[in-house]
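User: Some background: our group keeps a shared notebook of sequences we're curious about, and every so often someone picks one and asks for a predicted structure to add to the entry. Today it's my turn. The entry only has the sequence so far, pasted here. Could you supply the structure so I can complete it?
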Amino acid sequence: MDTMRDRFAPVISRLLDEDPRVAVVLAEIGRDGFADAQLRHPDRVINVGIREQLLVGAGAGLALTGMRPVVHTFASFLVERPFEQVKLDLGHQDVGAVLVSASASFDWPAGGFTHMAPGDVALLDTLDGWTVHVPGHPDEAETLLRHAVAAGDDRVYVRLSVQSNAEALPVDGARFRTVREGRSGVVVAVGPMLDAVLAATDGLDVTVLYATTVRPFDADALRAATRAAGTDVVLVEPYLAGTSTTAANDALADVPHRVLGLGAGRAELRRYGTVAEHLTAHGLGTRTLRERIGGFAGGGDGGRVAVRG
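Assistant: Of course. Here's the predicted structure to add to the notebook entry:
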């Protein structure tokens, strides 16, 4: 199966052909995928070199002229390094762009910590007005990329990953999707965490919601789910643990509730390893997820049913 990032250049290249407002700004990363598109649209495929502050600044400049810029590089160089430009050039000037990242959290362990950004969504949460898409499958990534580019002049972050669920689900760029119903708690699985969550909760009496758009947070879906399943809520996110706990707490502010946030830990793992090893180390493997989810909700079996992972 191809990856989400494999879909990125073909989808955006087609949008370049279809919409004269669309422009692409790159910082070396991904330039080969746009070689043909650059021949067709030399004024709308721009490579600024390894200058990430300029990457975002150039995107904002294009937006000020009425263009719809799509800005791409690794998450650590797209959100963290040029954060001042994201904050001021886009946010303060109130212009929109589509930021499309790759290799967030620990998708490329061989790149080391310089190429990891588990805090990217949490960092964007300090700013107002961002939509954040976290697809869990290449088909979903294609749909959400099109949603993002078509979203008027909004500020949108699309978080692409090499991690993927086995099958795509219909996504609409807004709402959570109910994939399993239960009566002893709600588990929100974000993007590529869905398959692991479904395996971890097999046999547990919990509702599973699938989230591919996490900002704005679908408070209505969470409230509706808790009315039938109870107000113990577990969030399983592929980035910094606890990123969405405030949003979940706000959604349930008028009822007694408990929220547990699972995701990447704050401790830096100094061995490069593999993606699978990082998932295990952060407690995102099937066995540990079951223990933590089952001990918190799911009828309180504590995850004692034998599973692999």
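Suggested note for the entry: The domain at 177-300 is CATH 3.40.50.920 (Rossmann fold). The chain has two domains: 4-159, 177-300.
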